[in-house]
């Protein structure tokens, strides 16, 4: 941000804070809808978690939460928009693990995940599965690994941009097999999946929330669960470790944020509604059906998220620095 833009943002922030009195915080949310920015394409994994959640959370908050999809640059464009939004509780962000990997991937990120947001709480954990187009010859991950080695030049790996979950998983995978593939970025894995199914790209490491339907329908080749244990909802898919590639493990956690300076009574109301939503049996059942797991209510709190986000930044920063990958 240049100096003028910084000044404008600072004046806007002071104005927003000044305009928001204690009484207004008490009245929040009233009947005004809340805009939840999802920094990826509609119909994708983050969108699915966000829509299932906000349908239930809206009832507990007492007003409608409306999703705004703003994909691009691995989720950083949408996150930046929320940093710059009015801090009045009517704009929030639903994002995933990318909040903890972006600081290492983007030298000019333009925001600090820990300093430029108020934490509301965690939402759900989603596993990842390496999938391929049905036309790919290998049927198992064990066979896929040597196939990749000999065909690397003609194979492509889709992702949702640098900083996305699919990017991180793909990065860990390529580093583990010491082979580089051509990566194809999309605004989310929803459009990427269309191209996988159509055969325009070959492979993708994706969240089960996006591919559950296709896995059940047998429309994709499910190569490996990218975590230590098999996914409860897809027990027939062996892990990468079981098939000779241990250590490639990612869990895609999701959380909710508000712009810095959003008044505490507002954050408390949002977090209370979130805690009720994650404990709701319908939300928990929907997540389980998609292979995911809603967090326990005690993780849907600002303190828990702050501690967790900070630990995740500390976990992923050295891994990404070691890989020497930068988005900018
Ligand atoms: N979460 C992204 C999406 O919703 C995908 C990803 O991060 O890989 O499309």
TrEMBL record:
Decide whether keyword Signal is in the record: yes
- Entry keywords, A to Z: Signal
Which SUPFAM superfamilies does the record associate with it?
Periplasmic binding protein-like II
Q: Which residues form the signal peptide?
A: 1-25
Q: Does the keyword Cytoplasm apply?
A: no
Top-level taxon in the UniProt lineage: Bacteria
UniProt lists the family membership as follows: Belongs to the UPF0065 (bug) family.
Which PANTHER family does its entry note? BLR1237 PROTEIN, TRICARBOXYLATE-BINDING PROTEIN
Would you tell me the protein name for this molecule? Tripartite tricarboxylate transporter substrate binding protein BugD
Report the source organism: Cupriavidus yeoncheonensis
């Amino acid at each position: 941000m240049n100096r003028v833009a910084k000044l404008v943002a600072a004046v806007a922030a002071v104005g927003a804070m000044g305009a928001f009195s204690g009484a207004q915080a008490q009245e929040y949310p009233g009947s005004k809808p809340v805009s939840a920015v999802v920094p990826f394409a509609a119909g994708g994994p983050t969108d699915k978690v966000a829509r299932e959640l906000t349908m239930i959370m809206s009832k507990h908050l007492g007003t409608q939460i409306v999703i705004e999809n703003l994909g691009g640059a691995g989720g950083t464009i949408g996150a930046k928009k929320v940093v710059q939004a009015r801090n009045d509780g009517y704009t929030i962000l639903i994002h995933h693990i990318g909040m903890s990997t972006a600081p290492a991937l983007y030298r000019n990120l333009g925001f600090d995940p820990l300093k430029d947001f108020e934490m509301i709480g965690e939402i759900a954990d989603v596993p990842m599965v390496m999938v391929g187009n049905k036309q790919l010859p290998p049927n198992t991950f064990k066979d896929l690994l040597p196939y990749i080695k000999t065909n690397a030049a003609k194979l492509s790996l889709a992702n949702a941009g640098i900083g996305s979950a699919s990017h991180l998983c793909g990065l860990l995978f390529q580093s583990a097999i010491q082979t580089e593939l051509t990566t194809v970025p999309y605004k989310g894995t929803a459009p990427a999946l269309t191209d996988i199914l159509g055969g325009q790209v070959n492979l993708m490491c994706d969240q089960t929330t996006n591919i559950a339907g296709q896995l059940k329908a047998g429309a994709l080749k499910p190569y490996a669960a990218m975590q230590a244990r098999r996914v409860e909802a897809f027990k027939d898919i062996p892990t990468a470790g079981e098939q000779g590639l241990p250590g490639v493990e990612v869990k895609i956690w999701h959380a909710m944020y508000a712009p810095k300076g959003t008044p505490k009574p507002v954050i408390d109301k949002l977090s209370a509604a979130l805690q009720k939503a994650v404990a709701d049996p319908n939300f928990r059942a929907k997540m389980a059906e998609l292979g995911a797991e809603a967090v326990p209510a005690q993780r849907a709190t600002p303190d828990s998220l702050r501690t967790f986000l900070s630990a995740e930044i500390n976990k992923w920063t050295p891994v990404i620095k070691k890989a020497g990958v930068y988005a900018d």
